Amino acid sequence: MYLSREEEGIYQGEKGETLRRMMEILVALGDIYGAERLVPVRSVQVAGVSYKNIGEAGLEWISDLKGQVAVPSILNPAGMDLCRWKEMGITEQFALKQQETIEAYRKLGVTIDCTCTPYQIYDLASRGDHLAWSESSAVSYANSVIGARTNREGGPSALASALVGKTALYGYHLDEFRRPTFLVEVDADLQGSDYGALGFLVGRIVKDGIPFFRLRGAPTGDELKALGASMAASGSVALYYVEDVTPAPPAWQAEERISIGRKEIDEVYAANSGEDADAVALGCPHCSSEELEKIAGLLKGRTVEKTLWVCTAKKIAEAHPDLVRTIEESGARVFCDTCMVVSPATERFAKMMVNSGKALAYLPGLGKVKAGLGTMEECINVSLGRR
After folding, report:
1. What pTM does this model have?
2. Distance between CA 97 and CA 99 in Å, rounded?
3. Can you tell me whether residue 319 is helix, strand or coil?
4. N or C: which end of the chain has fewer CB within 10 A?
5. What's the CATH number for 5-175?
6. Is the pLDDT of residue 169 over 90?
7. How many angstroms separate the CA atoms of 281 and 233, rounded?
8. Phi, psi (5° rounding) for residue 341?
9. Could you say which DSSP state residue 176 is in?
10. Are 156 and 184 in contact (CB under 8 A)?
């Protein structure tokens, strides 16, 4: 892989041990995937934030790094609400380790906004920008909806890109790897969580392929968010297209066609009922302001009987205190910085109902809890003790 004189100097340690190690990671990835060179990135989103996932070894690795990020960089959700962790049932021991992890990132100049939806709170990406993002749903949204270019980075490679300001030019950074491989024709009227159910289904079929959707209607931004997040979790889809909605793909010809109707969507709900759940969680990926408004409307004047978590980015919650107040007057809790998938607080429940195909795919393995799927309205009704 070609390195400029400056890059070669970093690789040889001329700018310190930390940058040498980071360049080593980027060059190794470039060599593995046949990259010709490095390319500057506009922004970075770093995974490997929850202490539950990285453990002591991960914390030590991050803490050992020195320097400052070269481009705007933001974090993925942590294992707890950084301010209200006691209300989640988090132990003091875990909270201490999680705060140490956050401080290690802060020391490097990473912005401490822990969210899987950075595009909802900052201008970090535009069409054609090269990025180094690592959270699966954020990668999908950046590639597909925004039209930026990023591979699905691991925590170490994303942090390497943050400190160096570059990434290896391979994979989804190149047109030849952004061509659809599946044509998915959907013969059903979809709304809300239906897109999560559709993504849950399609991700399992296409795995790491690139689906091109023909839909009856035009999904909203939140519905596109749900679709991509589900496919990234049930499969490993990092890029998809929706005809006449998302940026168009390069010239292509589908390798395989898939047809999905209302029956298949309904079967996802039927096979994953959440009516017997002892807790409900919304906001995977993190809730937008529009979703908070809808939840507040459904809960206004009512009282929940079961645990109800609503997860969102801190800046979204701070911008809408009236909505947060309405939601919490019901007995529900709005938590920031975290989500049900990466927090150990989830493990005390037997079953959790969600409106997210991503959470449905991840909770049994990562959260060690059974999961059920329903619409937002159905989730709220279960939390209120209704059926």
Report:
1. 0.97
2. 5
3. helix
4. C
5. 3.30.499
6. yes
7. 17
8. -80, -35
9. G
10. no
The pLDDT score that the predictor gives to residue 386 is 82
Cα-Cα-Cα-Cα torsion 369, 373, 378, 382, nearest 10 degrees, comes to: -20
Structural contact between residues 97 and 59, judged by C-beta atoms closer than 8 angstroms: yes
DSSP 193-247: THHHHHHHHHHHHHTT--EEEE-SS---HHHHHHHHHHHHHHS-----EETTTSP
Q: Give me 139's structure tokens.
A: 């990668």
Residue type, 298: L
User: In the CATH scheme, what architecture does the domain 272-383 have?
Assistant: 2-Layer Sandwich (3.30)
Cis peptide before 285 (omega within 30 of 0): yes
> Which amino acid makes up residue 125?
A
Give residue limits of the domains in the chain. Answer: 5-175, 179-269, 272-383
At 252 the pLDDT is 87
The 10s digit of each residue's pLDDT in 33-81 is 999 999 999 999 999 999 999 999 999 999 999 999 999 999 999 999 9
Q: Compute the distance between CA of residue 275 and CA of residue 373 in angstroms, rounded to an integer.
A: 9
Structure token digits, residue 62: 């991050």
5-175 and 272-383: identical CATH topology: yes
The mean pLDDT of the chain is 97
